[in-house]
Design a protein that fits this description.
The protein is of the alpha+beta class. Helix content is 16%, strand content 40%. The longest helix has 18 residues.
Length: 161
Amino acid sequence: MASRRASLAWCLGLLGALAGCAYSGAIAGRVEGRGMQPQPVTMNFQANRFGPGGKINVELPGGEYFTGRWVEVTPDTHADSFGPGGVGWGPWPPGWGDWGGGRDFASFVQAYSGNVAATLFGDRKNTMRCRFVLTNQADGMAGGGSGQCQITSGDTIQAQF
C-alpha cells in the first residue's frame, strides 16, 4: 500500500512539473495607422503545455479583439504544426511585403527558422499576421524579442517583449 502511495505521489509530482512547463507573458506594442497617433497595446501570449507554439491575443484601442496561434519556426517544423487556419506561408496580401520568404513551406521555414510567426483573427473580420525575432532562441518567447504585426485594415504594430 505504501509503495502505491509513493508511486501515486511521484506521478502527481511529475504531472505538476510538466504542467509548469507552459509559460505566458506580455508583449508591449504600439499600433500605428493612417490618420491616427500611435497608441500603446499589450499582446498576451501563452505557450502550449505540450507541442510547439501557443496562443496569442490583443485588443486594439478601438475595441477590436484578435486571437490566434504562434509557432516558433525551426528546421524541424512541419506544416501541420500550424494547425487549421495556420500562421501561413507563401504569398502575403498585397502591401505586406514578402514575409513568407517564398512561395512554399520549405522557403518559409528557411527564412524564419529560429523566429516566431503568428496569425490572429479579429472579431471584426480583420486578420493580423505577426513575426517576431527572438532575443535568445534557446529561451523561446520567454526570452524576449521584437517584431511587427500587420493588420488587413492597414494598421501595424511594433512590438517588444
